[in-house]
TrEMBL record, chains A, B:
It holds the Pfam family Peptidase_S51. It comes from Flavobacterium sediminis. This is Dipeptidase PepE. One of its GO terms (biological process) is proteolysis. Belongs to the peptidase S51 family. Gene3D superfamilies: 3.40.50.880. Signal peptide: none annotated. The keyword Mitochondrion does not apply. One of its GO terms (molecular function) is serine-type peptidase activity. NCBIfam families: PRK05282.1 (NF003642).
Length: 236, 236
């Protein structure tokens, strides 16, 4: 039993923090009064307090109370007793390092397997895959492992970006990077465009939002996947 | 004594591989007949042979012979006996993993300290910094450390990209990422735009090419640095 929303981004262009997802979140966290927020990814290096406040304000509009995981003396216990959990975006290397350092990673994996409602955005979505090997982030700290929660049997690439055909910049495209990943790793990768999310309920994994997603495997060219597709059907 | 060219990119938009650098390289490798090429970064996952062939063709036009490091039975010896060394771009995580796996990393550091002429492009430049923590690449493999050669007393960000003010994409800008890096790491970072390179001769580090570079430190806002600046003057 799993019950997750795995979102590409927290914020759409010209939108406010989480606003496009709030109707969905109201439903997702319907039976949850309090949500534990994991602020470890610290976007732009902001403090745990400041980041938690941002999440608090957004969830306040749908009547949910937010507690920052850093506010618990024992963060493992904070996870174990949580009614709902939200991991915000930022830097995935930092997030994963902190999840290992605090030993929250195993508690989180166990907890999510019991069906506790979870929301991840960006880095918080990345960690739902088998590894963090398809993050877009800069390796600002060295985590003890790239292994992540494995809540879905593939890897996530959030903020998926199509090649800019007008660009004169010679850095690799996202698709090139993911193809490089597949030279060394067997698992499929889903590129989630901004505004897309995966709805994981039990064994079902459904693509949500208005946009298509891009699905990469080792042995075939990448394909476009329509909204409402059950991603498990691609795994055979 | 160090003698390095640390280039942002191998290839300019609408240019051929290394062509913009060839006049400089002819001079840099003037006393060198044979150059050992380190193909470990494997851009796009191409083979060591295919990548070495690409370097061979470019250096052939200035009369230099290329040998791939993978062609040596003992790659450490290959480095120790090299007259000149070139590390090509690709994936920095893969490059650093292979440098550690083959134990070439220490031999390379020792060798470059003796003044052997070196060229790095992109990932091959990244490794000249203190750590690989400011690479733009995807973490497709897990290296045993992010520590790199430390040929300059700061970190390199190749392919430095200015914020795209027209973009609707919500991923972080390069500047945001480097500022995040500075929340956890003390060393300065130089953002080298495509077409720029550092010329390291002994203790002197000069910015070359037509473009300015961007210099990031922990305690002041980033500044623009003119070509021909001696980078050591920024370190005080």
């Amino acid at each position: 039993m799993r019950n997750l929303i795995i979102a590409s981004t927290s914020t759409l262009h010209q939108g406010d923090y989480l606003d496009y997802l709030l109707p969905e979140l109201k439903n997702h966290f319907a039976s949850t009064e309090t949500i534990v927020f994991i602020p470890y990814a610290r976007p732009g290096g902001i403090s745990h307090d400041a980041y938690t406040e941002k999440a608090r304000q957004a969830f306040n509009t749908i009547g949910k109370k937010i507690i920052g995981l850093h506010e618990f003396t024992n963060p493992i216990e904070g996870i174990q007793k949580a009614e709902g959990i939200f991991t915000g975006g930022g830097n995935t290397f930092l997030l994963v390092s902190e999840l290992y350092r605090t030993k929250v990673i195993d508690a989180l994996e166990e907890k999510l397997k019991t069906g506790t409602p979870y929301l991840g955005t960006s880095a918080g979505s990345n960690i739902c895959g088998l590894t963090m090997g398809t993050t877009n982030d800069m390796p600002i700290v060295y985590p003890p492992s790239f292994r992540t929660l494995g809540m879905v049997p593939f890897n996530i690439n959030p903020h998926y970006l199509d090649p800019d055909t007008n660009s004169t910049h010679m850095g690799e495209t996202r698709e090139t990077r993911i193809n490089e990943f597949h030279q060394f790793n067997p698992q499929p990768v889903i590129g989630l465009r901004e505004g897309s999310w995966l709805n994981v309920k039990g064994d079902k994994i459904i693509l949500k939002g208005n946009l298509k997603a891009r699905w990469f495997t080792t042995n075939r060219p990448a394909i476009e996947v329509d909204p409402e597709t059950e991603i498990n059907t691609l795994l055979t």
